[in-house]
């Protein structure tokens, strides 16, 4: 089957799906608004959507591309209508999977979706279950899917704690992210040691909560614990680069250089090295739509500390393979010390992470759900 993805960028949360599609013999192409600097392009090179003359002039005279994040760029960049349609027609895909949102590239597709609904599949990170109905979003979704005639899936079951009177968005099909186990149970047990090693993987931006993590690490160090913390992040624009420098200065000022290591723009295919040498993964972010990094960490047998303000926090079994916490310094400190106080609990949670990947997020089972919907 020839499958075309159209999205803001080729995100790492779609890497496993694309890899599986290739292995099953499908012809996969990716059409994007921008190229990130931390994705893995070894198996697939995305094609940039051609933009209009208006967008080119705006970028030339009012904005430098180095100042704009790919996501922000997607919100205002207007594709060249003629070239956009021409290239989609030339690809002649059997199925077209589109990342939904109020983006110009998506809205321009609606006439094609209306004419060829059976060829389209929508993807978003809206939760299937909600405590409160968002009427504006519901109206938008009903309109752009032509009264839910277009199949639609999401990797998010719910945000936070869900009530008994939850609202089921019936038009959304839940298909979680998936991964292979990347480590054996035997290797996990033999690699445990006295010094607990923490890992954070996130973009260098404020909402990722890295400043809170550094502050918590400082409190823990002052409490006499011995540990290490590696932070791997991406920059990609001037704003994030400046934020990285701010964090580096904070580590220097707190004299935490012997505890905290800051890395930036590590290629995706090198991330396995970082997952293998650490034991606990931390994602202290806020307003996180649906991160895939904690699942990647679970596939390498790491225990997980994740804030509840994350669309995929429910992938973690609280108290079994990790801790779901509030996004503040005190909660981060308590969670980290929880693992520092007991190596036995830490190892149990690491082993459970591998078990959850094997049973709950199996590639074969999730791939079947995807193909059934397709």
UniProtKB/TrEMBL annotation:
Species name: Imtechella halotolerans K1
Leader sequence segment: none
Sample GO molecular function, one term: glycosyltransferase activity
Official protein name in the record: Group 1 glycosyl transferase
This protein's record includes keyword Membrane: yes
Keyword list, A-Z: Membrane, Transferase, Transmembrane, Transmembrane helix
One Pfam family from the record: Glycos_transf_1
TM region(s), chain numbering: 96-116
Superkingdom of the source species: Bacteria
Organism lineage string: Bacteria, Pseudomonadati, Bacteroidota, Flavobacteriia, Flavobacteriales
Family annotation (PANTHER family): GLYCOSYLTRANSFERASE (PTHR12526), GLYCOSYLTRANSFERASE EPSF-RELATED (PTHR12526:SF637)
Ranges for domain Glycosyl transferase family: 193-343
């Amino acid at each position: 089957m020839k499958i075309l993805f159209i999205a803001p960028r080729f995100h790492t949360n779609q890497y496993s799906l694309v890899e599986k599609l290739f292995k099953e013999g499908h012809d996969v192409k990716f059409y994007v608004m921008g190229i990130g600097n931390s994705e893995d392009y070894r198996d697939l090179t995305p094609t940039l959507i051609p933009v209009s003359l208006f967008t080119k002039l705006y970028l030339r005279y009012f904005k430098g591309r180095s100042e704009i994040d790919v996501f922000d760029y997607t919100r205002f960049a207007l594709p060249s209508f003629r070239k956009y349609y021409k290239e989609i027609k030339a690809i002649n895909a059997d199925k077209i999977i589109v990342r939904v949102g109020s983006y110009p590239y998506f809205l321009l597709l609606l006439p094609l979706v209306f004419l060829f609904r059976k060829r389209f599949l929508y993807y978003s990170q809206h939760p299937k279950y909600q405590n409160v109905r968002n009427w504006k979003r519901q109206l938008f979704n009903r309109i752009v899917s032509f009264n839910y005639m277009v199949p639609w899936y999401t990797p998010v079951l719910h945000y936070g704690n869900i009530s008994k009177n939850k609202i089921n968005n019936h038009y959304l099909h839940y298909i979680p992210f998936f991964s292979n186990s990347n480590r054996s149970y035997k290797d996990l047990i033999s690699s445990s040691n006295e010094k607990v090693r923490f890992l954070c993987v996130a973009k260098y931006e404020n909402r990722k909560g890295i400043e809170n993590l550094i502050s918590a690490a400082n409190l823990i160090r002052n409490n006499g614990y011995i540990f290490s913390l590696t932070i791997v992040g991406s920059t990609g624009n001037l704003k994030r680069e400046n934020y990285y420098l701010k964090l580096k200065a904070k580590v220097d000022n707190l004299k935490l250089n012997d505890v905290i290591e800051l890395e930036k723009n590590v290629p995706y295919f090198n991330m396995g090295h970082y997952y293998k040498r650490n034991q606990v993964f931390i994602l202290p972010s806020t307003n996180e739509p649906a991160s895939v990094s904690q699942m990647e960490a679970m596939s390498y047998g790491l225990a997980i500390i994740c804030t509840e303000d994350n669309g995929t926090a429910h992938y973690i079994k609280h108290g079994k393979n990790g801790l779901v916490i509030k996004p503040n310094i005190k909660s981060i400190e308590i969670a980290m010390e929880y693992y520092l106080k007991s190596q036995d609990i830490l190892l149990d949670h690491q082993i459970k992470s591998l078990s959850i990947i094997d049973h709950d997020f199996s590639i074969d089972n999730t791939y079947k759900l995807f193909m059934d919907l397709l």
